[in-house]
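User: For my dataset I need records formatted as: sequence, then structure tokens, nothing else. Please produce one.
Assistant:
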Amino acid sequence: MKHSCLRISAVLSVIALQANVSAQSFADKYNDFRNEARNRHQSFKDESNRKYIEFLKYAWDRYEGKAPMQMPNDDTPVPPQPYKNNDSVKPVSIAPIIVNPLDDNPQPKPVEPVRETPLHDTPYFTTDFYGIECSVRLPENARLKVNANSSDAISDGWKRLSGETMNNAIRDCLEIRIRHNLCDWAYLSFLDKLCHDFCSDTNGATLLTAFIYCRSGYQMRLAKDATKLYLLYSSRHQIYGKPYFVVDGIYFYPLNSTSSSINICNATFKGETPMSLYIGKEQLLGEQLTSKRKIKSGKYPSVIAESQIPQKLIDFFNRYPASAIDGNPMTRWAMYANTPLASSTKEILYPSLKEAIRDCDEATSANKLLDWVQTGFVYEYDDKVWGQDRAFFAEESLYYPYCDCEDRAILFSRLVRDLLDLDVALVYYPGHLATAVKFNESVGGDAMIIGEEKFIVCDPTYIGAPVGAQMPGLKHDKVQAIVLER
């Protein structure tokens, strides 16, 4: 019995030893695999940087700039009119302009993960971006001074940034993008502000901006003339009012003003992605509010509300470029109309409006909101106020003293979607923009058959007109419509 116990014990010891060896073998194999994968990633990143650094030394070609694309302005604006009880017209059938959901594509991201690097002596550099303090770990070797006339100097600057010391800076920048919901344009603007505050040398700041922007996954090109270095960015949308350069069929726009003829390094990065000018989320900028503004309806005394807007959001919108989707200029209004209101704007504006339409049917609610926009705002032409055509985000109409038909249509469409949860289309007649609403209830009046759905005309510039009244004298044979996101 004693010998049997000894034999069993010996067998168990062998099994345990084998199990331990197997566990160690598996751990070793896993570690070897992990290290190999990391080495492959590091080799890929190093190889990509090495090639780009070499390109910066000699791959510069001359390009001539293209004049800025101007927004079409051929139609004479239709002035606002007081309501006349005209007979309804026959419903107009329209093939809607289709815009693919603008938020289907996520923001660009690095092709390879940017890992945290254990560098404890890198100080944080803090800059103010539209009222928010942004702190980023920027190493001293990122304070570049670059001679734009020397390709070798540009290449050496990129090589200097390519080490592990910039990983934490890129991670911090991407975290700020996430934390404050920064859209692509806001993110590029933030990087530009950060790097120019950090670097006293303008060319060094441009190279640093380009490096972080590129490593964040965005498509860009470096360009230069005899004295200055430039960052060129590509966009999914056509941008109005900005000069551009065509490189391999892709439009690249200078972040800052450039010469009309420059040298561009057309080196590519794997996975580089054009920016989008769509604003899918509230931009969480500074919280300081503008002064209060009281807006009241002329027909419905109970429809009165106050507005206050984040001041830094107004400042941000003031520099936002106008753009179109798939080359269709009408889609520029959808870019404004689909931008959500800031939560602080809604918290101040919406309670009074909700109370005014409480217990009302859809048509009555829409009539109250429509008259509030028709009569609570002062109409003025853009060229008289701004010297050019300029559409407003909804907040801008609530802030500035004047607005025109497109601004009112954008604001009204936002109110209807937020407060009534109904589909809305922007309806364009030559020289005029209105809206049409798809009601769940039966509502009479002038209608648009957009696709296969019936929408009732609601015109925020036809002063005093109820839901279902279309302004007379408009060209119905050329009407277009685009259904907005809910």
